[in-house]
């Protein structure tokens, strides 16, 4: 007997849902299959390794020609003021190797500086050679021959205008975070490893620092959300005195003071004050001080105006006899301020009559420097500077007026292309009889100085890995 089984027909709604599901599954299946066959879904593509090492090679070439008429001091041993006229070309070349990674920096800077044609005094030197280690929370340690530059460089600066410039063998420890910066610098120099006969490691005539030891502490604070910065500086410098190994001793002199900068909107107001105590390098008691103030106003992007005044204390009873020799009464206290390792060219005149060379016997009548100047940028790559200085001694001189003279300085800088800059300058000064007698001028006529320089500083090579 035959039996017939009845299968009920699905309802239209159910049939539609099933059909749609099958259709979607069929449409999606190729996608699923494609994803299953994609290599990215089976093996994750490795990301390129982060390049944490950076090596650079830089060239710094500077050549400067000068024409001077009364721009250099006469010899100290002459019976009369020396007529000074000279022309020469300076040359300086630096080859700079740098390395950097996340916590480590290093630099080696080899330098050659000489006058063109000079085969005796020109010399190679190691201008920089240091390693710096730093942590993410602001602590760092830097050791080796390095440039020290603080605040406006009045006391400690690179003095890069000089061909040899300033660098120090030192250990620098510091902390920098947000508004606070604190540095401690330790230096100790001697001629060799014989501790019983340790002397001055550097020769001052070669442009390096003549001190035997130095301890410096510097602290800077930037006020949050207010354009005010304050710095405090303390320095203890040991200078060796006497004959080495016989009656030598180290004389310690201390310098302390501060620097303040206030920059509301278009203004910049700067002030500094420092004192020196202890005993100077001839074992004579020190009691000196200096103060300065400067105001800069920038009305537009192409123009700024500045004015200021510097006072550096001088030795009392400074005497200049008619013969031209600088005669000095015996001092029991030195009162002439010494700007130690500052960038003097920046502050006391481009002709560098003051604080680059010492006066006879090491004493000084001090200095008053009142100045006003302007900076104009008429073109994108062109800068023009003009400054006027009034100079006077800081202390009275017997039989002579305190006024030293008036100076006018002009300078222009033009960047031809990236890494190539040409600069030119012209300065002249009307010196007084006081200026002549202090052996810093040929006579009281107009003293002239002109110069032209080219600076080429390209990056030769750079690689990261």
Give Rg in angstroms.
34 Å
Main beta sheet strand tally, sense and closure: 18 strands, antiparallel, barrel
Beta-strand segment tally: 24
End-to-end Cα distance:
89 Å
Look at the helices and sheets and give the structural class: mainly beta
Quote the beta fraction.
Answer: over 45%
What average pLDDT do the residues reach? 83
Uncertain parts? 1-37, 74-82, 200-207
Summarize the helix and strand pattern as letters.
Answer: HHEEEEEEEEEEEEEEEEEEEEEEHEE
Total of DSSP H or I helical runs spanning 4+ residues: 3
The coarse overall form would be: globular
Fraction of residues in H or I helices: under 10%
Task: Give me the oligomer status.
Answer: single chain
Question: Quick recap of the structure?
Answer:
With 465 residues, the chain is mainly beta. It has three helices and 24 strands. The protein has an 18-stranded antiparallel beta barrel.
